[in-house]
Backbone:
């Protein structure tokens, strides 16, 4: 298809990414964290209504939800949810997205030129580019992120809804869609009313390159370690000063270097220091701990606790304190009981000619909390590459194929 005659999903995607929806971590105490997320929420709700979806609602927290009745004969099948997120990250500029299509001929992928400098990425940094020669890629102009994470997911779900509206006989069970705010700052589907959503299973469409299926994520917690020192004039400090900054350094050096994120991949977890602030009197270090395996996850926390106890014992007083905040758990614990969700997704990809790629997520996902709240929810690819940066792009063919994958998927749930 030539892009003078754009496919529905491409047209939607190019339109949605132009609506700025950056979430704001500084305002994470309210949902949505940024009012601009309502702009896209309201636009999508209007489009869903125009497509004949039922119960279309934008909640006070900017959750868009809607139901689509089953094709005839599949009314009694378990309802299936499709979920994507409205917001984009604030780690890269997200307002004023100006998407354009680059026909990729190999070598460096140049998405734009900013202040005379080409913004580019090559196969040396992204080997996957070699398989994309000859493809049309939706890129940014180099100044902003693209927002394919997760507007590609939104466009793909919306294009499926549009396809069903045009051909109601396409086999599908009762469907529900949800577009939720603030996923990038850790809220995501937290406030989704699961009983009203009314689904037995769901998929988030929020993954990377086409073919990805994810149903394992990290177990995750945040550990804040505080160090209390004792300040005195350095000239009189002998045997008296306790420097909190040095306590922090000592503690940090007790943690294993190979378990830092810069040395781990795949199923290897990590202990990551996000930042530290320190003076002589007081230091606060913020760590995050991640591991897919619950026992190894706990072992990492225990190791930090032992470092803490070791220092307090050596100092003869309690100067090092650890505070643990659990964040999310590996949804594999739940989804492992629903292997049919993974098998069905694999078959849907294969039918469309895409090789499925089951991967552990090295992060969290909306599906994790939903799974633990009773809605088993693996994650599917959107087709996007290099998200959270100005090099983000998505092949047009991936956008289009993902709509076919979703159509295959819902068809399989109709039987
Ligand atoms: Zn995302």
Residues:
């Amino acid at each position: 298809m030539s892009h003078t005659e754009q496919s529905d999903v491409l047209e939607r995607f190019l339109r949605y990414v132009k609506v700025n929806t950056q979430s704001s971590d500084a305002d994470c105490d309210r949902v949505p964290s940024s009012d601009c997320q309502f702009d896209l929420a309201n636009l999508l709700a209007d489009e869903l209504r125009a497509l004949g979806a039922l119960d279309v609602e934008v909640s006070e927290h900017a959750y868009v939800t809607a139901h689509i009745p089953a094709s005839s004969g599949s009314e009694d099948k378990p309802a299936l949810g499709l979920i994507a997120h409205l917001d984009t990250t604030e780690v890269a500029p997200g307002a004023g997205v100006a998407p354009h299509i680059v026909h990729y001929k190999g070598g460096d992928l140049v998405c734009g030129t900013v202040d005379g400098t080409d913004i580019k990425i090559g196969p040396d940094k992204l080997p996957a580019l070699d398989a994309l020669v000859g493809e049309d890629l939706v890129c940014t102009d180099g100044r902003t992120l693209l927002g394919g994470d997760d507007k590609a997911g939104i466009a793909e779900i919306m294009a499926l809804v549009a396809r069903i509206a045009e051909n109601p006989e396409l086999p599908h069970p009762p469907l529900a869609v949800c577009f939720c705010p603030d996923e990038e700052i850790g809220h995501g589907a937290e406030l989704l009313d699961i009983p009203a959503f009314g689904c037995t299973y769901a998929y988030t469409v929020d993954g990377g390159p086409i073919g990805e299926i994810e149903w394992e994520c990290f177990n995750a917690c945040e550990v804040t370690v505080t160090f209390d020192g004792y300040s005195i004039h350095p000239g009189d400090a002998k045997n008296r000063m306790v420097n909190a900054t040095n306590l922090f350094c000592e503690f940090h050096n007790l943690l294993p270097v190979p378990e830092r994120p810069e040395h781990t991949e795949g199923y290897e977890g990590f202990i990551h220091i996000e930042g530290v602030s320190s003076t002589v009197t007081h230091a606060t270090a913020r760590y995050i701990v991640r591991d897919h395996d619950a026992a190894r996850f706990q072992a990492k926390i225990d190791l930090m606790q032992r470092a803490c106890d070791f220092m307090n014992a050596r100092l003869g007083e309690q100067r090092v304190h650890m505070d643990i905040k659990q964040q999310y758990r590996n949804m594999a614990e739940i989804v492992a009981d629903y292997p049919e969700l993974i098998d069905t997704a694999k078959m849907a990809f294969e039918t469309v000619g895409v090789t499925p790629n089951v991967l552990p997520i090295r992060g969290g996902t909306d599906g994790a909390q939903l799974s633990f709240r009773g809605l088993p929810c693996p994650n599917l690819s959107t087709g996007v590459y290099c998200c959270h940066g100005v090099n983000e792009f998505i092949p047009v063919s991936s956008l289009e194929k993902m709509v076919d994958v979703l159509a295959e998927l819902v068809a399989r749930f109709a039987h």
